[in-house]
Amino acid sequence: MFALDGPTDYRRLKFEGQRVYAFGTGAAPRKAMDRLWARLTGGVAAKPEELHVLGRTISVPQAAMGVARFAAAELIEKPLGARDYLRLAHAYDALILDDVPQFDRAKTSAAKRFILLIDTLYDAGVKLGASFAVPIDQLGADDKTATEFERAASRLVEMQSDGYLGAPRKAAAPAREAGSTIAPNATKGSLAPQTPEG
């Protein structure tokens, strides 16, 4: 893991003045995330990677320069838990999520995973770019997760702020806990940006 605690970190400056969220459906939000991806990676070609967590494999569709990009469904509609999200937070300095949905009663499990993911990224100071189907204050449409979503929404608002985007990574536990590795053919980039498991 590359530390981001120097007096000037030019990798963090890539976020300066950037709009890291996009809203709605269709081509426009995707193009906005494509532009953010290009800025953060400097045009370096994306490659798939694999993270291994206690015998499980997390497939990362696109990774470059310490940034990973996922369709939101790949992280919140699969049986991932706290260790998996913590592994992502250790492995990458920024995540881009495409197509975050509105979470209604049919998506309670996905909502809990999304909240846990945001908490994990926030606590580690990982930067987030995302496209959302609806405005942040409308994401939580399920009364079962209403309280938790209030906190998540507050954190999402903060995570797009200049203060958060310009801050260094927060201190975290060692990235390589027992049983957790990046696949040998994976290339770690240089950009440093509880729902039950199962």
Kindly identify the CATH topology: Rossmann fold
Number of domains: 1
Largest sheet: 7 strands, mixed
Estimate what percentage of residues fall within beta strands.
15-25%
The rounded Rg comes to: 16 Å
The first-to-last residue Cα distance is: 27 Å
Q: Which stretches of 5+ consecutive residues score pLDDT under 50?
A: 1-13, 173-182, 184-198
Tell me, what is the CATH class?
Alpha Beta
Shape summary: globular
N-to-C SSE series? Answer: EHEEEHHEHEHHE
Number of strands: 7
Strand order of the largest sheet: 1-6-5-4-3-2-7
* Backbone structural class: alpha/beta
Mean model confidence by pLDDT: 82
CATH architecture: 3-Layer(aba) Sandwich
Structural description of this entry:
The chain is α/β, with parallel strands linked by helices and 198 residues long. The protein has a single domain (18-174), classed as Rossmann fold. Helices cover 33% and strands 20% of the residues. It is built from six helices and seven strands; from the N terminus they run βαβββααβαβααβ. The protein has helices at residues 27-41, 72-76, 82-91, 108-124, 146-159, 162-165; strands at 21-23, 47-53, 56-64, 67-71, 94-100, 127-132, 180-182. Strands 1-6-5-4-3-2-7 form a seven-stranded mixed β-sheet, sandwiched between helices. A hairpin with a 2-residue loop joins strand 2 (47-53) and strand 3 (56-64). It is globular and about 40 Å long. Residues 1-13, 173-182 and 184-198 have low confidence and may be disordered.
